[in-house]
Specification:
The protein is built from 18 helices and 17 strands. Helix 5 packs antiparallel against helix 6 and helix 7 packs antiparallel against helix 8. The chain is globular, with a radius of gyration of 29 Å. By secondary structure, it is of the alpha/beta class.
Length: 458
């Protein structure tokens, strides 16, 4: 984070704009909309700007005296020397200063703004790409209607009443989420605030029945944040607590609500920060405290994710829960590696197995796995790669069968190592792939040479 995003109250305060052209006029306009008084300093100032109310016009070149009494400065001239002088003098006085199109001289950035007052959204690229920030604003313009300003004003009107009635901060946040993401919000957005107020009052009377803990068992996919579902993102923004394991990438964890508590529970091979039974108990305990608990699991919760065990415990304890599927590693990683799991010329079936059983062995149905014209995908199989290859050959699979190891698939660290059942153990010993990995076995691996170009991370 290059700049701390903040909103500053400039109502009734004097702000300085150095520069009287079209850029200066735009910046002065934004300050005036925020309720500021504006002093504009320049040898030549646009007539339209002179006519603005609450604008003090100074027809002169900038000097240090123009900084007297100002709360904020914007330099908007086409003279680099003047802009630098404004920046140096303002920062020496600890006055926030922005120099248009020169982030190196700024102590704050003027963002692109989506105005749904009192709801405000600001976008900034830290000066790297103003055009990109305006594009992002344009995208959100389409999904945040103008009448959201009415919804924000409604919430402001009842804020103190709700604060008095719902004294627990966590429960109060959940109460507002129920109100602003349900029928109350729909009534406000359509202009029926009387009905919305009545519904809100009813919610306050029944607050103890409405606000309760819940667990969201969410599949985080194989690593790329772009592969999350919309539902996953929505629940990630609601959670009070995030319980996540080693297979969930940091960018995905960072997408959860910023102020949510984060609890890492480990789950590396042979290195569990918490045992599965302890994780189950943790989810129950947090939910019984009235919290919304996000259980983030790599891939899909029900494919080698032990999600079934977790919801068994939740159901037994009467804890409400939701399960959100995720893209499992086999699908996501294979796609990014350019390896289709089925293909008419190579494989008419696909089998998913785990290479790490509960007792630590690799005691699999080898005869089933060694059948021809199918793809075998092995989760958590890197540690037992030697055994895996040897057993498949022992049960009839040709030692020339293509096989691939995909390291940290769908992430920027993705790496694909290919070979055959005979050669890959030696190649892996030399290349030292890093977990998490996925192993893909079968003729489809040969298609990577044709298809890997399709995805830039392949």
């Amino acid at each position: 984070m290059d700049f701390l995003p903040i909103f500053q109250n400039v109502k009734g305060r004097l702000c300085l704009v150095v520069g009287g052209g079209s850029v200066g006029m735009r910046k002065a306009g934004v300050l005036l909309e925020a309720g500021a008084k504006v002093r504009v300093v320049a040898p030549d100032i646009d007539e339209a700007l002179k006519a603005q109310a609450n604008v003090e016009v100074v027809l002169a070149r900038f000097d240090e005296s123009h900084l007297e009494g100002v709360a904020l400065v914007i330099a908007a001239t086409d003279d680099c020397g003047v802009n630098k002088q404004v920046s140096v003098l303002a920062q020496a006085r600890n006055i926030p200063v922005n120099v248009v199109d020169d982030p190196g001289l700024c102590s704050f950035i003027m963002p692109a703004i989506l105005d749904r007052s009192p709801l405000m959204v600001a976008f900034s690229s830290g000066g790297a790409s103003p055009v990109l920030t305006r594009m992002m604003r344009g995208k959100l313009e389409t999904v945040i209607p103008q009448n959201y300003s009415r919804l924000a004003a409604f919430a402001e009107r009842f804020r103190e009443l709700v604060k008095t009635k719902v004294t627990n901060p966590a429960k109060r946040r959940i109460f507002w989420e129920n109100a602003l993401d349900g029928v109350v919000a729909e009534k406000v957005l359509t202009g029926d605030e009387n009905s919305a107020e009545a519904m809100l009052q009813q919610m306050l009377e029944n607050e103890d029945n409405i606000v309760r803990g819940e667990v969201y068992l969410v599949g985080a996919g194989p690593g790329d944040p772009d592969l999350l579902t919309f539902r996953a993102l929505r629940l990630m923004q609601k959670a009070d607590v995030v319980v996540y394991d080693n297979l969930v990438s940091k960018p995905i964890v960072d997408m959860a609500r910023r102020d949510a508590e984060r609890i890492f529970v480990g789950k590396k091979r042979a290195d569990h920060t918490l045992r599965q039974e302890e994780i189950n108990e943790l989810l129950v305990r947090l939910a019984k405290q009235g919290k919304r608990v996000l259980r983030l699991k790599g891939g899909d919760p029900f494919i080698f994710g032990r999600g079934g065990e977790e919801i068994e415990t939740l159901a037994a304890e009467g804890i409400p829960f939701q399960v959100v599927p995720g893209i499992t590693a086999a699908s996501g990683v294979a796609s990014y590696a350019g390896i289709p799991l089925t293909h008419r010329d190579h494989a008419q079936a696909c089998v998913f197995v785990t290479g790490h059983l509960k007792d630590g062995t690799m005691n699999l149905d080898w005869e089933l796995l060694a059948r021809p014209r199918q793809t075998v995908v092995v989760y958590m199989g890197l540690h037992g790669l030697d055994t895996l290859c040897a057993k498949l050959v022992e049960h009839g699979m040709p030692d020339t069968t293509p096989i691939a190891i995909v390291q940290q698939g769908t992430t920027p660290n993705q790496r694909v190592i290919t070979g055959t059942l005979a050669t890959l153990p030696g190649i892996a010993e030399r290349e030292q792939p890093q977990a998490p990995t996925l192993i893909i076995i079968g003729g489809v691996v040969t298609l990577r040479e044709k298809l890997a170009w399709f995805h830039p991370q392949g």
